[in-house]
């Protein structure tokens, strides 16, 4: 413990101190007069206080410590040392101080030099403190819990990506900290891969193979299951320009409570586009789902007044359903649908009569890549079982498409949302129901992608989820959001096209 010399305020010494007056110096602080104003402990009677000169095991009371006046060979306890309390000729021995409101006030020299005044004899001070020291107590031994060997709670998943895209393997493990990680490819250690996430920034064909990670601590070691990386070499013929691709339709399915509203947002980029929007309730009965009895759609582009609404769909839209590949609505049903030319961001609010399952869809009627849909978002209550939040989307064109997908729960606190989903789990499935990628807690490395697509930042260290898969165009995909801990709450699902 050292204090800058400028912090000391010498206010003048008291009158000559006699041996019988040492009690007034109890608990004062002792500092040397060397260049560093070395702290020499406290005049405390405690034998357990680490700062007490009576603690013979502490830095200031031990006969072996270099900062103890009780060490006969230290600079502050030797009879020959310049700054020692025991040098009878020293004119710069330690000084006793009090500290009040940040101001140090000096009170007496701690010295054997009888020519200095006022002074306290170090032996007299130690004898007094010893006389009032509490009886020694036996401290029970501290039991340090045994370290727990690491256990992998979430295995790294196999990935399929295209050349030039990124790939991330993630492991989650428990056990006594600190945990260390060592990733290998086909049994060979990957230099520098020593964290819970291993990311390949731009995948090459040579990166294909089998990956594992070994997690270790002082109690043991555990190795993960193998995860494979399959690399698709997507190369356009030399005489053909690779076809662009885009998000061609988007949908969100969830279970609604009575009086609840599902909010879905999307963005059309590059100009005006005809978008078909549907809210399927009764039509879901044919798929064995208890659909909402009478859904209603409200479409907003700005402000609080809807630019279009629909309660019961019109049969004139049936041909448009067929053109975009949407399933049929029964003529005269109470499902809702509307078609609107849109440019930029728009929001759909879906609500209706009674509880039930609701499917909201947005279709790009004309197709093409400019203008086009570039993102969609949906916010609703996430439940359990069949009541989780589910979104679907299709990628038209050829090649591969990078998309950013996020499930936001904890960060919604910044927007005043109550009843949030504390720990979202995000899963992406292909058209066959096979898992493409999943995530529990997002990787901070994705922050640069958030900025690139205009997504708001996620709270550092939060349990929100995010993935950045490269998906094969000409296929459909499903996104599922649930509680990783089995919890329920409000969550925001987002899907962004990444340039």
CATH C-level category of the largest domain: Mainly Beta
Strand residues, percent:
35-45%
Nearest-integer average pLDDT: 84
Number of helices: 3
What CATH calls the topology of the largest domain is Jelly Rolls
Which structural class should the secondary elements be placed in? Answer: mainly beta
What is the count of distinct domains?
3
Number of strands: 31
Question: Looking at the structure, what is the overall shape?
Answer: elongated
Write structural notes for this entry:
The chain is mainly beta and 499 residues long. It folds into 3 domains: 5-131, no CATH class; 151-232, Sandwich (Immunoglobulin-like), CATH 2.60.40.10; 246-497, Jelly Rolls, CATH 2.60.120. 5% of the residues lie in helices and 40% in strands. It is built from 3 helices and 31 strands. The strands form 5 sheets. The chain has a 15-stranded antiparallel beta sheet that branches. Strands 1, 2, 3, 4, 5 and 6 form a 6-stranded mixed beta sheet that branches. A hairpin with a 2-residue loop joins strand 4 (95-100) and strand 5. The longest helix has 10 residues, at 122-131.
Give the helix/strand layout.
Elements: E1 8-9, E2 29-31, E3 39-42, E4 95-100, E5 103-110, E6 119-120, H1 122-131, E7 151-154, E8 159-162, E9 167-170, E10 172-174, E11 180-185, E12 188-189, E13 197-200, E14 209-217, E15 220-223, E16 227-232, E17 246-256, E18 262-280, E19 294-300, E20 308-310, H2 318-324, E21 336-353, E22 356-364, E23 372-382, E24 389-396, E25 400-408, E26 424-429, E27 435-439, H3 447-453, E28 465-467, E29 470-472, E30 475-483, E31 489-497
Parallel strand pairs: 1-5, 5-6, 8-16
Antiparallel strand pairs: 2-3, 2-4, 4-5, 7-10, 9-13, 11-12, 11-14, 14-15, 14-16, 17-22, 17-24, 18-21, 18-22, 18-23, 19-20, 19-21, 23-31, 24-30, 25-28, 25-29, 25-31, 26-27, 26-30
């Amino acid at each position: 413990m050292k204090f800058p010399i400028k912090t000391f305020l010498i206010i003048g010494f008291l009158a000559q101190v006699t041996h019988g007056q040492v009690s007034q110096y109890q608990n004062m602080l002792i500092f040397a007069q060397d260049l560093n104003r070395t702290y020499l402990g406290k005049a405390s009677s405690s034998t357990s206080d680490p700062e007490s000169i009576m603690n013979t095991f502490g830095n200031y009371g031990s006969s072996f410590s270099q900062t103890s006046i009780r060490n006969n060979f230290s600079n502050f306890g030797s009879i020959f040392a310049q700054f020692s309390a025991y040098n009878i000729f020293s004119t710069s021995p330690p000084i006793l101080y009090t500290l009040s409101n940040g101001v140090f006030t000096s009170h007496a020299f701690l010295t054997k030099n009888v020519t200095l005044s006022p002074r306290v004899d170090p032996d007299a001070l130690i004898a007094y403190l010893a006389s009032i020291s509490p009886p020694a107590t036996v401290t029970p031994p501290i039991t340090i819990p045994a370290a727990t060997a690491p256990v992998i709670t979430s295995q790294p998943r196999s990935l399929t990506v295209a050349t030039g895209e990124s790939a991330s393997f993630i492991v989650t493990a428990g056990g006594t900290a600190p945990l260390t990680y060592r990733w290998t490819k086909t049994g060979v250690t990957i230099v520098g891969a020593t964290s819970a996430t291993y990311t390949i920034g731009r995948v090459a064909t040579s990166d294909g193979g089998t990956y594992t990670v070994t997690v270790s601590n002082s109690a043991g070691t555990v190795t993960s299951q193998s995860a494979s990386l399959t690399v698709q070499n997507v190369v356009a013929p030399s005489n053909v320009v690779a076809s662009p691709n885009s998000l061609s339709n988007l949908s969100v399915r969830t279970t609604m409570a009575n009086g609840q509203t599902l909010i879905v947002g999307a963005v059309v980029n590059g100009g005006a586009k005809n978008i078909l929007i549907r809210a399927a309730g009764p039509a879901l009965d044919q798929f064995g789902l208890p659909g909402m009895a009478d859904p209603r759609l409200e479409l907003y582009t700005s402000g609080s007044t809807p630019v279009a609404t629909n309660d019961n769909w019109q049969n004139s839209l049936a041909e448009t359903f067929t053109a975009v590949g949407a399933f049929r609505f029964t003529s005269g049903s109470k499902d809702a649908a509307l078609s609107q030319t849109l440019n930029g961001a728009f929001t759909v609010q879906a609500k209706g009569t009674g509880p039930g399952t609701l499917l909201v869809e947005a279709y790009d009627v004309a197709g093409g890549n400019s203008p086009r849909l570039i993102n969609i978002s949906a916010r609703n209550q996430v439940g359990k079982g069949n009541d989780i939040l589910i979104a679907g989307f299709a990628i038209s064109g050829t090649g591969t498409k990078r998309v950013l997908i996020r499930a936001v729960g904890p960060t919604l606190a910044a927007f005043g949302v109550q009843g949030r989903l504390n720990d979202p789990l995000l899963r992406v499935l292909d058209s066959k129901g096979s898992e493409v990628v999943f995530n529990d807690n997002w990787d901070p490395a994705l922050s640069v992608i958030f900025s690139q697509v205009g997504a708001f930042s996620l709270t550092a260290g939060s349990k929100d989820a995010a993935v950045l898969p490269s998906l094969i165009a000409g296929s459909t995909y499903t996104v599922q959001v649930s509680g990783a801990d089995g919890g329920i709450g409000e969550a925001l699902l987002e899907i962004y096209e990444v340039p």
